[in-house]
Amino acid sequence: MISLVVLAAVARLVGTAAATQSDPLPLPPMGFNNWARFMTNINESIFVDAAEAMSKNGLLAAGYNRINLDDAWSTKERAANGEMVWDPVKFPNGLPWLTAHLKSKGFIPGIYTDAGNVSCGGYPGALHHEEIDHETFTSWSFEYLKIDGCNMPDHSEATYHEVYGRWHEILSGADHPMILSDSAPAYFSGEIAGTNNMTDWYTVMGWASAYGQLARHSADILVYPDGIYGGGSSWVSMLYNYGQEVRLARYQRPGYFNDPDFLNVDHPSYTLDEGKSHFALWCSFSAPLIISANIPALSQEEIDYLTNKDLLAVNQDRLVQQATLVSSGQTWDVLTKSLENGDRLLTILNKGSSTGDLTVSWESIGLSSKALRRANYVSAKNLWTGEQVKVSVKDGGITAKAIPSHGTAVFRIAKSISPVTPTGIIFNTNTTNCLTDNKSGHVTFAQCDGSDAQTWRVRPHGNINSLLRPDECIVDAQGAILSRHSGCRTDAWTYELSGNLINNNSKLCLTEGANGAATATSCGYELNEQVVGLPVGVTVVGITV
Ligand code: GLA
């Protein structure tokens, strides 16, 4: 446990480090998985056909080089010697043949198991068979393992930790370690755990992000309608997972990716704009891009956006930052992050029901006001159209025009306006209320509304000001949070992997009190009222529990 925490701490202290070759998975994985499209109707042809189509339609060339089997590939019983057995009807040529075939076509094969007694779909789980199953999967030449978390002996965090810890030991001790995609956190996220207490979720995220290269953190994205499942709106499902992802940005770092689940792009309830938004958001997050769709039947429009080189470059950027929210309101969400070459990403999501324009100010993107004063223009590329735009600094910001309902605009802003200051909402990840400044200097938590009173700059020394009151910084005034001019000298804050924002003087934690009060109180352990999200780029210090 101790070494785990140290590992996480070291990784986070170099917050702006780029991925390196020594990371087992330096960049987010890209590829195909059958689950959200075919569920338990898994079989050999799905993978053979997907591989063939991906080779021809440009997906493989664009980087989608993983093919992952999900649940229900095995028989319902193990062999007499305890080994897992592939279903000979579904996989007539066998799994070693399939992995060899996929590799010969340039793909890396992955497989699924469940850490518990029985998989989510009712097939044998790996509990107490970890060693033998690892040997089997290795001998079949799989290089990536998704470990689900259904049907564990009990639902305690300690049990999950113990069982996944066993897997971590086996995998990290192996000669050719497999990539571990770990679903444990999903079983502690609110909607599944059925509790409003997020502490266990964050605890599991802490170790899961150190054990695996990616972790499924919340609900399943809506599966394809098969008459039983998959009805309803995939837009709602996608936005739900997006909303969970933004709560967890502090965990992502080179070598570990938060996984908001598959790109279920051919779900028939999506409009084209919605599918494109799904993709653009996952790219902005540097999230895994695992398509779960009927690949041979994808339309040219779908292939075109899935292979958009500029968006894929954002996803595969070596800083692998997860874009965070600059602002969030009824209609618009605005996100930013930095890219390795110093460029800044701007992603604007229209959640509303009609087409609209939005201007995002230079300050809220985090651009340097000094550099802005020296420049005449800001250059940016519209990543959907490829158009280069030159915007006069005097315009005050960048305007995205005619963003359709449920569409997303994405700009890559050239680095000349650097250095950037991490800028965005500070929000309670339980209530999702935003820290809100006020002309009077009385700071509260309130529903996010997209205003400048809720967009905060985290300055290099840890002083924090809102865009509403750029010359005043938040202070802990004997337990009350105020914004004051003197605060920009006296009150610096430290952000921890636990999600606590700690005042360096009082050592107290920012807390959402009753009725939206913003207070500073003694720091507890990952408490609902004290875990906050901050803009990406702020150094995250490891927890020491
Ligand atoms: C869970 C997972 C899904 C899929 C199914 C398989 O629901 O979250 O991604 O693996 O199990 O049964």
Describe the structure.
The chain has 545 residues and is of the alpha/beta class. It folds into three domains: 23-315, Aldolase class I (TIM Barrel), CATH 3.20.20; 324-413, Immunoglobulin-like; 423-541, Trefoil (Acidic Fibroblast Growth Factor, subunit A) (Trefoil). Helices cover 26% and strands 23% of the residues. It has 16 helices and 30 strands. The strands form nine sheets. An eight-stranded parallel beta sheet has the order 7-6-5-4-3-2-1-8. Strand 27 (509-512) and strand 28 form a beta hairpin. Helix 1 packs across helix 9, helix 7 packs parallel to helix 9 and helix 11 runs parallel beside helix 13 (309-315). Bound molecules: alpha-D-galactopyranose (GLA). Alpha-D-galactopyranose is lined by residues 35, 70-71, 119-121, 148, 183, 220. It is found in: Secreted.
State the share of residues found in helices, binned by percent: 25-40%
CATH superfamily of the largest domain: Aldolase class I
Q: How many DSSP-defined strands?
A: 30
Second-tier CATH architecture of the largest domain = Alpha-Beta Barrel
